[in-house]
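Try this one yourself first.
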C-alpha cells in the first residue's frame, strides 16, 4: 500500500467535484458517502489512458519486435512468443490493477489536502507520479476558476459555488474512456447510459479478490468482446458500431483520443471540435460536452436536458429555440457551457444538501 498527498487549490470540495457529474456512478469510479471517499480502479498499462508501449531495438525475428513497434501486453493480441491464453488469464485476474482511494483532509490556508491511498503491486517505475497526474486531470486541479467565480458572483443562484467549493467537473483520466462513455450516453436516459457503461467496464481486468471492481477495458479488450456482446449484454444497440469503429482507429494508430489533452493546450476550440466530430457516433452535443472536459467551455452542449432547463428557468415553460438558448448564455463567453451546467446542477439533491449542511466548512 502506498500513500501520497495532493494539494487542491481552495476553494475546493472533493464531494462537490465527485458529484458534479454522473461519471461517479460509472465504473471504474465510485463515491462512498459514508467515508466521503472517491474510489478509482486503474491499471498500470493504461493508468494515463494509453496502451503501454515497449520499444525494442532488435529486428523482428523469432517473435521479437522491431524498433518502434508496439506489443500490447495487456491485450494478449500478439503474435510473438507470449502465450496468449496465459496473458489473458493474468489480465482478467487483475495483474497490475490498482485501487485508488481519495479523501479530503483538513484545509490549510490556500490548499485542501487530498490524501491518496494506492493498493496493488509495489513498483518503483513511476506509478505514484502517473496516478498523481491522472488524479490532477480527473479533478481539474490545474483549472483557474477565478474568472468563472467572478461571473458567478453576480448570478442569482451560482454565487454560492465558490463558497461550497464547486466548479470543477469530474472526468475520466483517459479521453478514450470519456468518449466511449459519451457514446453510450447518446439518445438514452441517464439510468440506461449508466447500465451500458458499467456492463462495458466489466470487460476490463478486476482488482484482485474483488471481481466487481474493474479497471476500464482497453480497445483490444472491447474489440475482442465483439458486437454480439456489446448489443446482447451491454445493450448498447446501434452504438456498438461506433464503439468498435473507434477501437479500430485506436488499434491501427490512425486516431488516439488520449492525444486530445495535449492538443487542447495549443489548439483552438474549432480545431478540437473537428477532431471530436471525426469520431463516428459523436454529434454536436456530445462533442461540446467533451470540449468542456478538455477545458474549452465556450460551446454549449445543447440536448433535451438543456432545452428543459431553459424552458423551466428562462422561457416560462415554452420550448426555446437553439438560437434563444445561445443568446441567453452568450454573455458568459468562454465559460458559457460551465454556467449552464451548474445552473442545472445547483438544483440537484446533492448540491442542495451541500448548501444546507456544509456552508461552514468553506
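Now uncover the answer:
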Amino acid at each position: 500500500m502506498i500513500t501520497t498527498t495532493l494539494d487542491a487549490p481552495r476553494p475546493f470540495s472533493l464531494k462537490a467535484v465527485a458529484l458534479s457529474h454522473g461519471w461517479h456512478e460509472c465504473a471504474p469510479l465510485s463515491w462512498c458517502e459514508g467515508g466521503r471517499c472517491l474510489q478509482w480502479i486503474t491499471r498500470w498499462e493504461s493508468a494515463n489512458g494509453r496502451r503501454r508501449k515497449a520499444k525494442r531495438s532488435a529486428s523482428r525475428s523469432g517473435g521479437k519486435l522491431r524498433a518502434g513497434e508496439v506489443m500490447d501486453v495487456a491485450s494478449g493480441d500478439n503474435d510473438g512468443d507470449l502465450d496468449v491464453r496465459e496473458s489473458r488469464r493474468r489480465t482478467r485476474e487483475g495483474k497490475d490493477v490498482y485501487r485508488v482511494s481519495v479523501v479530503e483532509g483538513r484545509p490549510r490556508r490556500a490548499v485542501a489536502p487530498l490524501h491518496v491511498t494506492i493498493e496493488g503491486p509495489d513498483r518503483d517505475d513511476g506509478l505514484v507520479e502517473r496516478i498523481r497526474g491522472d488524479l490532477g486531470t480527473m479533478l481539474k486541479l490545474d483549472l483557474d476558476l477565478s474568472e468563472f467565480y467572478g461571473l458567478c458572483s453576480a448570478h442569482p443562484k451560482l454565487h454560492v459555488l465558490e463558497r461550497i467549493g464547486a466548479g470543477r467537473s469530474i472526468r475520466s483520466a483517459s479521453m478514450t474512456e470519456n468518449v466511449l462513455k459519451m457514446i453510450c450516453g447518446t439518445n438514452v436516459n441517464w439510468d440506461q447510459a449508466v447500465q451500458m457503461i458499467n456492463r462495458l467496464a466489466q470487460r476490463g481486468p478486476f482488482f484482485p479478490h474483488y471481481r466487481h471492481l474493474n479497471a476500464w477495458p482497453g480497445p483490444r479488450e472491447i474489440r475482442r468482446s465483439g458486437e454480439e456482446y456489446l448489443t446482447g449484454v451491454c445493450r448498447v444497440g446501434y452504438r456498438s458500431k461506433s464503439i468498435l469503429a473507434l477501437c479500430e482507429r485506436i488499434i491501427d494508430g490512425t486516431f488516439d483520443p488520449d492525444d486530445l489533452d495535449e492538443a487542447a493546450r495549443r489548439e483552438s476550440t474549432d480545431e478540437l471540435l473537428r477532431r471530436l466530430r471525426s469520431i463516428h457516433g459523436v454529434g454536436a452535443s456530445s462533442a461540446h460536452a467533451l470540449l468542456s472536459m478538455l477545458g474549452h467551455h465556450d460551446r454549449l452542449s445543447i440536448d433535451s436536458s438543456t432545452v428543459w432547463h431553459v424552458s423551466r428557468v428562462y422561457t416560462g415553460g415554452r420550448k426555446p429555440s437553439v438560437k434563444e438558448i445561445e443568446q441567453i448564455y452568450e454573455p458568459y463567453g468562454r465559460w458559457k457551457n460551465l454556467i449552464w451546467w451548474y445552473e442545472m446542477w445547483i438544483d440537484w439533491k446533492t448540491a442542495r444538501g451541500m448548501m444546507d449542511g456544509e456552508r461552514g466548512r468553506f
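Discussion: The two ends are 31 Å apart (CA to CA). The chain has one domain: 2-46+97-352.
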